[in-house]
Amino acid sequence: MSKKFGILAYPAGHSLSPAMHRAAFQELGIDATYDFFEVPPEQLTEFFANEVRTKKIDGLSVSIPHKVAVMPLLDEIEDSARKIGAVNTVFWRDEKLVGANTDWLGFLQAFDRPIENKKVVILGGGGAARALVFALLEKKCEVTVVTREAWEFETIQKDFGIATDFIANLGNYDPDILVNTTPLGMKGAFEGKSFVDPNWFASHKPLVFDIVYNPRETQLLKDARTAGCETIEGLKMLVNQAVAQFEKFTGATVKFEKMWDAALAELAK
User: Fold this and answer.
1) One domain, residues 126 and 219
2) What positions carry a catalytic annotation?
3) Does residue 127 register a pLDDT over 90?
4) Total domains, the chain
5) Are residues 121 and 227 in the same domain?
6) pTM, two decimal places
7) Rounded CA separation 90/58 (Å)
8) pLDDT tens readout for residues 47-103
9) Alpha-carbon distance 216 to 186, whole Å?
10) Which distant-in-sequence residues (6+ apart) come within 8 Å of 159 by Cβ?
């Protein structure tokens, strides 16, 4: 019997998840479909009752704006997802609907070197930032979250006990790694924009990681590369988290390259 998976988001049309997971199913000969589930927030509870549980959807990739809202609708939350406070993966285990988070794994796997004990500044204080803070604390890094306004970092400060500051004070920091978790730089209205003044890179040479994956080279990465900094594109994190997610869904392992090629092909369209 064919299994049923999909991306749960609102809107969902921009996602690369269907292309990546469908390629993986095909590669491994798994009889499964992967669809778009575009569900507005006010219909989320009904969707879980009538579709996920009654019609038995086998697994969901969860994206904005549902990563926190799905948590009370599940039977179990894995420890890492509970600590992060967000779920991006929903699957069945022992007849229970389980929530997990693979964003933090995808982030760590995007690095090609050890990052233990590094000084890291994260731009942005949303759900993605929380997953990355969790990941970096696992690696004993010294983490500071900087945002435009205090309310954006207050919850992170309370939950993780880390340093926080305002983006305006970025000049006071000299991190080993700088990570952008905000949408600034994303294709569309935010494209070509960055919170970091290009001149900042003249006296700072961090490794720069932007989790935005479309365009592949954001303005932040362009400015950093021009100044001689090493950079990591967001597509690496996206694909790595999908590989980890696929394993949660199916128990099978798919090669990174298979999902990477599918994501590239979809982006090129």
Assistant:
1) yes
2) 67
3) no
4) 2
5) yes
6) 0.96
7) 8
8) 999 999 999 999 999 998 999 999 999 999 999 999 999 999 999 999 999 999 999
9) 9
10) 85, 130
Write out the residue range of the structural domain in which residue 186 sits. 105-232
Q: How many residues does the chain have?
A: 269
Output the CA–CA distances (angstroms, integers) from residue 239 to 20, 30, 139, 213, 245, in the order listed.
8, 19, 21, 10, 10
- Joined together, the tokens standing for residue 174 give 């000299």
Q: Are 10 and 41 in contact (CB under 8 A)?
A: yes
Q: In terms of domains, do 219 and 116 share one?
A: yes
Residue whose C-alpha is closest to residue 32's, from 241, 254, 256: 254
One domain for residues 97 and 109: no
Nearest CA to 35 among 10, 1, 4?
A: 4
Closest to 206 in 3D by CA, of 175, 173, 172, 228: 175
Rounded distance between C-alpha atoms, residue 162 and residue 24, angstroms: 38
Same domain? 140 vs 79:
no
**Mean pLDDT over all residues of the chain?**
96
What is the CATH number for 127?
A: 3.40.50.720
Examine the domain organization and report whether 184 and 263 are in the same domain: no
Structure confidence at residue 130 (pLDDT): 95
Residue 105's identity, in one-letter code, is L
Specify whether 91 is located in the same domain as 140.
no
H or E element that contains 7:
strand 3-9
